[in-house]
Each structure stands twice: as structure tokens, then as C-alpha cells.
What does this fold into?
Amino acid sequence: MLFESTATNWLILGLVLSIFELFVPGTYLIWFGFAGLLMSLLTCFIDMALSTQIIFFAVFSAIFVLIGWFSYRYIFKKTQTPQEYRNLNDSAQQYIGHIVTLSEDVIDNQTKVKVGDTYWLAYSEKPLKKGENAKVTDVKDSLILVIE
It folds into this structure.
């Protein structure tokens, strides 16, 4: 043992694990640090064998990791972007489902379509003619509208 008191050893382990959390990517060491701090508190009042302490540490670690997992899951679920804002900065994705007018005939599966006041490159497997309407079904590479 490093120190006479097992409580001090657990306190040091809990603090070291908590400090390592600052330097290691991810958020998992803090939960083991909490388990070490709880073990320090527990061994202050209860004298137990080292094997018992390790078992308690493992159980406390599992409990704290589950608490952390459910907490992060709740936080990330709550902070997800609403569906209506997902494509806010991707203007091509916003046109899926819209009806567009072809500006040129489809040649080699490619054409141009007029969307609002701009022209977009479009891909179509159907032989469509200039002036026909088509529906945007997908986007490739944020530049080409797939129409049918």
C-alpha cells in the first residue's frame, strides 16, 4: 500500500482518475474517479479486506458508468437538431420533393433545371424534354439534383 490509510489510497486514485479525464478523450474516467472517491468515503468508516474493496469498487464503477451512460443519452437526445432545421445550410437537400422545370433536354442522363431563380445540374434516367416538370427525389454531392 502506498499510504497507511486505505481511504487515502482510494482518494488519490479517485482524484487521479478524475484529473486524467481532462487529458484523455471521451468521458468515461470521471465515473471511475467517482467510484474511487466513494470508496475513499466508505473505507473511512468501514474496515474491509482489499478483495472486498475491489469488488465494491467494481460495483460502484458499474453503477456510475450506467448513470453516466443514461445521462449522456438523455442530454444528446434532448439536444438533437429538430427535423425542420437539419438541412438549413444544405440548400440542395431543401429541394427534395419539389417540382422543378427542365431548362434543357436530358442528354446522357444529365440536364439543367430551374429552381427559383437559379439553375441546377440534374440527373435523370428518364428521357425528359425541355419545359417538362419533374420531381426532385434525391441529391448527389450537394450539387446534382436527381429527378424523375
Remarks:
- The chain has two domains: 6-78, 86-147.
- Strands lie at 99-102, 110-115, 118-123, 133-140, 144-147.
